[in-house]
UniProtKB/TrEMBL annotation:
Belongs to the TRAP transporter small permease family. It is found in: Cell inner membrane; Cell membrane. Its main location: membrane. GO terms for cellular component: plasma membrane. The complex comprises the extracytoplasmic solute receptor protein and the two transmembrane proteins. Residues 40-167 form the Tripartite ATP-independent periplasmic transporters DctQ component domain. GO terms for molecular function: transmembrane transporter activity. The chain crosses the membrane at residues 21-44, 64-82, 102-123, 143-167. This is TRAP transporter small permease protein. It comes from Pandoraea eparura. Keywords: Cell inner membrane, Cell membrane, Membrane, Transmembrane, Transmembrane helix, Transport.
Amino acid sequence: MSAEINMLETPATPMPVRIKWVAWAEGVLQGIVAIAILFIMVLTFTDVVMRYLVSSPIKGSAEMVQFAMALLIFAAFPLVTYHEKHITVSLLHGRLHGTSGWVHRLIILAIDTATCFAIAWQLAEEGAYLGNSGMSTMVLGWYLGPLAYAMSALSAVAGMAALVLVVGHCRKAGRGAEEKSA
C-alpha cells in the first residue's frame, strides 16, 4: 500500500493572464537557476576529479558552491512564489467557498507578499552591515555584502510576483461582480 503525496498541487485559482514583463522575468530567473545548477555540477565534478586523480582540489570550491547555492535558491524564490508552489498546510482548503474562500485566499496572498518584502528588507539590512564591515569569505576573499544585496533584490522580485497574484486575485473578483450584475 503506497500513498502518493503531491506537494506541488496546482492552486485552486488559475494563474493570472500572462504579462509580457512577467514572462521575460521568468525567463531571466530560469536562466539564472539553470546556470547556477550547471556551475555547481561542473565545479563539483571537476573538484572531485582533481581531488582524487591529481590530488589537487580546486581552491575555494566550497565557497563558490555556497555562493551559487544562494543565487540558485533566491532566483528560484520568485518562480516558486509566482507559481504558488510553496509547501503549504491546507487546513481550510476545500472548506471555504464563495466570498469566504476568496477572502481567505486574499489574506494568504497578502501575508505572502508582506513576508517576501520583509525578507528583502532584512537581507538589505544584512547587506549593508556586511558591506560596511567588509566581511568576506575565508579562502577566496569574496565580499559577502553584494551577495546579500543580490538575495535582497531577488526577494523583492518574489514580493512583486506575490503582488501580481494579489492584483490578479482582486481583478478576478471584480470580473465576477461585473458578470453577476450583467
